Amino acid sequence: xxxxxxxxxxxxxxxxxxxxxxxxxISCFALMICxxxxxxxxxxxxxxxxxxxxxxxxxxxxxxxxIRATASGESQDQMLAKKKAQANSREQLAxxxxxxxxxxxxxxxxxxxxxxxxxxxxxxxGLTRQVVEQQLSGVSTICEKLTKTKQNTFKCYIAQExxxxxxxxxxxxxxxxxxxxxxxxxxxxxxxxxxKEMDKGSK
Length: 203
Known about the structure:
Elements: H1 2-40, E1 66-75, H2 78-109, H3 117-136, E2 140-148, E3 154-163, H4 164-176, H5 179-182, H6 187-201
Antiparallel strand pairs: 1-3, 2-3
């Protein structure tokens, strides 16, 4: 009789362990689902919602050797909406490039011992702006989406980019054709400063 009671007790103990193990397993699984769900859920202020804009996001940020801009344009005319988006995007690219080039020129001339440094910088910046304007005419479009609003207008979203290497080559070519600047122009030094500024803006 004692043997039967012992067997019965042992079986009950094994069942209890199995049930306990199952409960723990289910609880862990539920916790994992909850944690993954909590990570995916983004908290936003009450009354607001997250809007995912076309042609926008981390994949359209500046990359190494690439300057990028995203913009949009709206109009009742489809083609005009596209032209507005392109113009806004190029305006952003030009602004970014002008700031970058100015910083590069300042750093480049900071250690150069030449006469009339300020005059040389002004001339240099003028030539580089010409290169920027030329490059903007050949900008590459990497994303373009057209939508129609509730007001029956067209909205164009666009992302464009410029290649830093092409800009650098254009500057070198432009400076080489200028008698006053090419004598003191150190391409490798300028290239080094240019790449450092490009790396600052890349993500």
